[in-house]
Amino acid sequence: MFTPSLPSPVRFLAAMLLMGAGLFAHPVLAQGGPPFPGEGPDQERLKAIRTAFFTERLSLTPEEAATFWPVYNQYDEAREALLEGRGDQKPETLSDAELEAAVLAEFERQEKLLALNRQYLDRFKQALPARKAAMVFMLEHRFREEVVNAVRRRLSTGGPGGRSGSGLGGGPRGRFPAPDGQQRFRAPREGKF
Q1: Cα(44)–Cα(165) distance, integer angstroms
Q2: Does residue 165 form part of some domain?
Q3: 95 falls within a domain
Q4: 152-155: long-range contacts, CB 8 A cutoff, minimum separation 24
Q5: Does the pTM of the predicted model rise above 0.70?
Q6: Tally of structural domains, the chain
Q7: What pLDDT digit, counting tens, does each position of 30-74 carry?
Q8: Gap between the Cα atoms of 114 and 120, Å rounded
Q9: b/e per residue 16-46 (b: at least 16 CB within 10 A)
Q10: Residue numbers of the domain that contains 86
């Protein structure tokens, strides 16, 4: 009879942490698989969508945008470097010792990410008013959610086009610029950024 060295709740927590870590390292998002390949027109389109999303939600002036985007791009590169290779392992295939080592490595990665976020909050505050600088991290999370949801909708409809208005790429209800360059934004809800 197999007796795991980690208690069942700890093993469950470790498995959940690794699966959560794998969410943003999913090949579709992290490694450039369809529908947004790592390089090329789709990746450029995603960057343009992100730029429009942040610019609109932060209400950036041209002067703020000119100072914010170079700092944000540095932050994004540093963040991606930290997250590289994250979540590639399936918890059920690991031994107890490997699982524990993977969880500890994830904790260390999260600590480094927290330090990076604190460092860049200060840098964002040099480029933007404090309120807008603080909102960058909330918008980063919200943008990722939007991308994940759009990818899910695309995959569930069985094609790259997805349903009309299904999120990224502008159907009539889309929140982001359409490929033809026309902006089709929803007005932010009251009390939301």
Answers
A1: 21
A2: no
A3: yes
A4: 154/35, 155/28
A5: no
A6: 1
A7: 434 444 445 567 888 888 999 999 999 999 999 999 999 999 999
A8: 10
A9: ebbeebbeeeeebbbeeeebbeeeeebeebb
A10: 8-25+41-157
